[in-house]
Inverse folding.
């Protein structure tokens, strides 16, 4: 009976939130979740402590109070109050366009976002969207899907058992801010839900919900150079049309432009000195916590390939066999596509094409045939992999997380074929995870 119950639970969890069946105006409720509401609060509080250690808090009192007043105005709306979560709002001195809310209510807004918004309604839209992720409990809903069996059998206490620190246990369960985090990585369905609920919060607070869609679409117009925010918040498509349809179900209202303090906030933010503390490498989101280049850190795991071994971060997972594998954080794979991680294997070249350059060209041709949008973005360069001569070919394609993707293809000719390693990351993330990729390449040992 227990096994049957677990299977039933996982089937419900895997079904997602059911956005496709929802019509504009239909109630929005949290999806299936094996975490309690108090668990959300605990997860949020633990991670908020790490954020405050990692980032510099803006010391300008006016800027902090302006954002807090706007946030509390949104939090006073019925849907937010009924959630029972206590929201907090903190401005971080980080010059990136980003904002995120942790389960239970802690929200962090980067100064880069404050510089990017053109009016108070756009800022209210981002904040309402993030609050909606909290209200609808999207973070722990995703964690439920990722940890379903353990949660169904033993609950959060069983999942987080052991003697490690709470922060470490949260990270292992995908509830931290590291490479395997699931609590800040949202599906397109979750984004649609957050748009819909966020539009209600905005409207009730006196802001035009269309401004939220316009701001997100303005970010998306940046293409592959778009901000980190879009890598964790995939565009659900037709945002403005969906929000307009949602607005038709709301009472007619006159929308205000801003509180009258927006212009001063912009001036205060523009006058801030450079941040004294730089964010730790990796930041929040996929690939966070990147170690320095060089020898692979102790505790990394080892993948046994066909004629070689490769070390990889302890939080990542290797799926496959000796003939080929995907090595990635849990949130690095979207459906069947690897958007963040490493793909490795051995390619068998055609007869007479076993030389490094010729075999690499054939492999690139095969990859391009499988993905017509893939392009070679630079000339191949000589590299070393485990002391052996290799080639690195840079490729570009679309990322499953939105925007562009950079793929660093490293090939080495071996007796059993062409060994290859494809280091994959969204364009906006590749630079900050390149050190980890180089560590992995340095760890290769041939047999």
């Amino acid at each position: 009976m227990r096994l049957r119950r677990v299977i039933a639970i996982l089937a419900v969890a895997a079904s997602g939130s059911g956005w496709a069946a929802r019509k504009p105006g239909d109630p929005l409720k949290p999806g299936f979740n094996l975490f309690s509401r108090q668990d959300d609060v605990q997860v949020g509080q633990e991670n908020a402590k790490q954020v405050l250690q990692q980032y510099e808090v803006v010391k300008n009192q006016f800027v902090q109070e302006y954002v807090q007043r706007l946030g509390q105005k949104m939090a006073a709306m019925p849907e937010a109050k009924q959630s029972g979560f206590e929201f907090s709002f903190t401005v971080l001195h980080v010059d990136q366009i980003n904002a995120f809310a942790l389960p239970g209510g802690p929200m962090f807004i980067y100064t880069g976002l404050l510089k990017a918004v053109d009016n108070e309604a756009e800022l209210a839209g981002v904040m309402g969207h993030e609050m909606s992720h909290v209200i609808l409990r999207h973070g722990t809903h995703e964690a439920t899907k990722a940890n379903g069996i353990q949660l169904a059998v033993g609950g959060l206490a069983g999942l987080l058992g052991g003697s490690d620190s709470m922060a470490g246990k949260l990270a292992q369960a995908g509830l931290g801010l590291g490479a395997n985090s699931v609590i800040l990585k949202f599906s397109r369905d979750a984004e649609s839900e957050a748009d819909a609920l966020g539009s209600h919060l905005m409207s009730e607070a006196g802001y035009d919900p269309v401004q939220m869609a316009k701001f997100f679409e303005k970010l998306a117009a940046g293409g592959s150079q778009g901000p980190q925010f879009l890598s964790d918040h995939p565009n659900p498509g037709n945002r403005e049309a969906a929000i307009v349809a949602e607005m038709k179900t709301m009472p007619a209202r006159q929308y205000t432009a801003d509180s009258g303090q927006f212009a001063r906030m912009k001036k205060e933010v523009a006058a801030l000195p450079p941040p004294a503390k730089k964010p730790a490498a990796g930041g929040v989101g996929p690939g966070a916590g990147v170690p320095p280049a060089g020898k692979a850190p102790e505790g990394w795991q080892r993948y046994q390939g066909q004629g070689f071994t490769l070390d990889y971060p302890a939080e990542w997972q290797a799926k496959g066999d000796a003939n080929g594998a995907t090595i990635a954080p849990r949130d690095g794979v979207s459906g069947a596509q690897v958007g963040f991680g490493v793909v490795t294997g051995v390619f068998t070249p055609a007869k007479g094409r076993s030389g490094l350059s010729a075999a690499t060209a054939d492999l690139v041709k095969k990859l391009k045939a499988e993905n017509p949008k893939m392009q070679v973005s630079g000339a191949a360069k000589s590299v070393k992999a485990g002391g052996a001569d290799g080639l690195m070919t840079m490729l570009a394609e679309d990322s499953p997380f939105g925007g562009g993707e950079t793929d660093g293809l490293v090939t080495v000719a071996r007796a059993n074929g062409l060994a290859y390693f494809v280091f994959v990351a969204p364009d906006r993330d590749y630079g900050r995870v390149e050190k980890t990729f180089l560590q992995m390449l340095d760890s290769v040992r041939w047999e």
About this structure: Residues 1-20, 223-228, 280-294 have pLDDT under 50 and may be disordered. The longest strand covers residues 388-398. The CA atoms of residues 293 and 438 lie 7 Å apart.
